[in-house]
Amino acid sequence: MPTPSLPLPLAGEGATVRLVAIQGGQRAAHRLAELGLTPGVTVTVLRDSGGALLVAVGDTRLALSYGLAQMVLVTGEEFRDA
Amino acid sequence: MTAGTLPAPGAALRYAPPIETELERLVTALGAIPALAERYPLRWLAIQLLEGDDDLLAEAEGLGGPTVTAALAACRERLAPHYGEDLDVALVDQRYRFVHALAGQALTRPATPPLTLSDRIDRVVTHRWLGIPIFLALMWVVFKLTTDVTAPFVDWIDATLSGPVSAWATTLLGVAGLGGAWFESLLVDGVIAGVGGVLVFVPVLLALYFALALLEDSGYMARAAFVMDRLMHALGLHGKSFLPMIVGFGCSVPAIYATRTLDSRRDRILTGLLVPFMSCSARLPVYVLIAAIFFPSHAGLVIFGLYLTGIVVAIVIGMLLRRTLFRNQPPAPFVLELPPYRLPTLRGVWRQMWERTAAFLRKATTIILATSVVVWLLLALPVRGEGRFADTPVDQSAFAAVSGATAPVFAPLGFGGWETSGALLTGFVAKEVVVSTLGQTYAVADLEEEVATAPATFSEDLLGIAGGLVSATGDALRALPGVIGITLETPEAETAPEGLAAAVRAGFEASSGGHGSLAALAFLVFVLLYTPCMTTVAAARHEFGSRWMWVSIVGQFAVAWLAALLVFQGGRLLGG
Questions:
Q1: Which residue has the higher pLDDT, B234 or B103?
Q2: Does A49 touch chain B (CB under 8 A)?
Q3: Which CATH class is domain B13-106?
């Protein structure tokens, strides 16, 4: 059974997930890729302020507004339980 | 670049074969153009062009002509079947893969990365409940630093320019045989007073840029943006816009410049349009004077109410702008790298302070100087009566004529006298002068007239200036503890001179048909909401361009006029 992929904001605070793809605008996708959000990387959601996420990608810490985070599709262990 | 002297990296970054083939072709094509080959490392240029760097493409086309465009288009076309629209993402992705592979071989890392100090600080600073109070506390410190701590220096510069420096200029002109003439008045009342109006901002700006540099260089600013994001969403802005707003309570000029920390132009402009509604400290003397005359027992409440009104107006206008002028521009979705916390270096902080302040001085001096000279000219030109040039009573000057001509605009608001119009007119240059203009136009002796002292010698003046600086430093140091404490100092109880109070009251009663207090309140609301000062206008032009400068001036005037109308006419309907 393939694991479902979900937008990053649905992962929830504390979740560690794997990035599957970035969908949506070219420019945004390029910008996110430059900051290290490329398919396959592991992303940890450190904080969810309700409008933006604070995530860890390797040694980098990024603040992402929901608008951008919606474009980031992720998958992880947590989703199979949910 | 001295790339030639660096050892070549042992592991070269190679892209996937189709990309490498095209890169080689592009390098060959670009290498055939000598202008490009001399100027750029060709492989780097080829990669940038493939990734879609538009600025660089324009530059390369400028040097190499249509050959560049054609070669690039051909490469892209051949790569399209492999990567489609995602060529740039693929390039970045392959770079990251290379980096990860290299890092994987060179670095040994624990399986679960330990919590760094930065992470631990972030746990507190971005905490759901603690984050906002921490941010507000820091902003409070910035606010106090730019107002209380710099105030002694502002006073010192002001006193030095209006005292010794003006006296020196007068003496020098006297020596040159030009004393007493209109030229002296132009130099002292026009030029020195005008430039002084700019120079007094220097301590405020230095303090602000000091605080901003600390917040930015330490890495906190990025966290603040994350923390405040939600609250600012109501205004169609995100977290970073909060800082300029807070700074605006001190002074609109640094607040406009503080919008530079925002990423998108839309956010900078929208924030810059709202910042002037925050009641800046220069407006306070006007509130104090008018409130003391008309509302002596409720002065504090009136002043607090005005500050609150400014905030409410900013929120309402922000929501309106978001739905009108900026309707088709959603807030830029933001992504922000949070750098690990670092100790700011003295050098870095100083450089930011100096560069930003110097930029302000260069731009603002010209416009302020020009305006001051124009106002001086209007005051100097007699249009009626017996006065001569540069020696005419205020009410017979061109200034009175111009003020009188603008007065009907303010008639529906209850303050249509030429005296108040004149004060609002000079208030456009700087709010500090509203009070002194009221004093002048109501034909009372200058409120801030220094007690005439025996002429001091040059060395006495120098000693006085140095002494003033020392005591200003002392005062500033004494104000420092207040930065951390939260003792809100009440403004000094300033009692209006009897003559002026009576004249102002009579003036407002006459222009409002017997509703003096209501007209005074409308006047205060107008002062709160219209253009803070010429320097802010110069800053807005510097940052956002002429078009937005005019939107700002006209918009604020309209808002101020409507709000004052609402107060005066609404109050009359309610029987005030």
A1: B103
A2: yes
A3: mainly alpha
pLDDT given at position B494: 47
Ranges of each domain in chain A: 6-81
pLDDT tens sequence across B501-556: 888 888 898 888 888 899 999 999 999 999 988 889 988 998 999 999 999 999 99
**What residue in A sits closest to B330 (Cα-Cα)?**
A67
For chain B, which residues make up each domain, given as ranges?
13-106, 135-328+358-449+494-573
Confidence of residue B202 (pLDDT cuts 50, 70, 90): confident
Look over chain B and give the mean of its residue pLDDT values, rounded to a whole number: 81
Closest approach of B230 to chain A, Cα-based (Å): 6
Q: CA-CA distances (angstroms) from residue B130 to A48, B121, B264, B453? A: 14, 12, 28, 56
If one looks up domain A6-81 in CATH, what number appears?
2.30.30.90
* Strand order, beta sheet including B335-338: A6-7, A72-75, A16-22, A42-48, A52-57, A60-65, B335-338
What residues of B are in the A interface, CB distance below 8 Å?
A: 51-52, 85-86, 88-89, 92-93, 96-97, 113, 118-119, 122, 126, 128, 131, 222, 225-227, 229-230, 233, 238-239, 330-331, 333-340
**Chain-chain contact of B330 with A67 (C-beta, under 8 angstroms):** yes
The complex scores an ipTM of: 0.86
CB contact under 8 A, A35 and B337: yes
Proportion of chain B in helix, strand, coil states, percent, rounded to 5: 75, 0, 25
